[in-house]
Amino acid sequence: MALLSGKKALIFGVANERSIAWGIAQALHREGCELGFTFLGEALEKRVRPLAESVGSKLILPCDVAADAQIDAVYSEVAKAWGKFDVLVHAIAFAKKEDLAGDYVSTSRDGFHLAMDVSAYSLVAITRPAVPLLNPGASIFALTYYGSEKVSPHYNVMGVAKAALEASVRYLASDLGPKGIRVNAISAGPIKTLAASGISGFKDKLKMAAANNPLRRTILQEEVGNAGLYLASHLSSAVTGEVHYVDAGANIMAESVPEEKKEGEA
Ligand code: NAD
Ligand code: 0WE
Q: Which ligand neighbours the alpha carbon of 188 most closely?
């Protein structure tokens, strides 16, 4: 029997076929999970609807996670269509472009609040109304990045927001554990997505990752999808409050790999 047959997952954060959330959706679909999607704004509906329909989804709803009324509307539709569900996926981040360049010290109050609201608080905002609709054994997970732990040049306010998101995962895991609901994060290595394509020097970031991590390559959406499948399924039934790395080992390295070691010699 498929790992997720009879289960239902609500996925926030598909923008297009390159989205990490889409990699997760495909992995969950492969194991028999019924899927629902939210998208940000009309412009993205054109991209998200055909993807969602290709995996048989009938629940495709608009949601700006900065707007409580839109979140409420999502869950009233979810309650109507599904009643209860099993998996909640958060794959959303946003900071102003100007705050992902130059120095962190330049971050405005406004830019800080925006990044924290959309990228960190939103996990709490979409979790709270989900709780009464979640089945026992339910799983919630969010996407994060290593820039939360160590300084990653130009990640800036997003690094601070991801630190808040990861701490939030731990507090939510503590709150919801007694209800049998697990909360985790996946820390993914750099992947070329819409969110990444807006960043100057991202190509170099990918090259650097591939040259310096233990597996000497970048990671694929599909590999994040498989980690998501593990977190969504009973295979991870005693796992909660944790950050799980899907980064080709990058986070274990204290230093970059010296040039002469790159071609496999001792
Ligand atoms: P993406 O652009 O495909 O996805 C980001 C999503 O956030 C989009 O669907 C966008 O519509 C959504 N979003 C932004 N503001 C929103 C709002 N106010 N309300 C609702 N949705 C909103 O890019 P991605 O790289 O797949 O990003 C998904 C997650 O993965 C993010 O949390 C990101 O930080 C994280 N991540 C990305 C990488 C990477 O290198 N691409 C690495 C590690 C973690
Ligand atoms: O979380 C992210 C990116 C999130 C993101 C991307 C954008 C680009 C377009 C948030 N907000 C915006 N706002 C925009 O206007 N990643 C993990 C990918 C990423 O982004 C970086 C990175 C990496 C890796 C930015 C600087 C340095 C490294």
A: 1
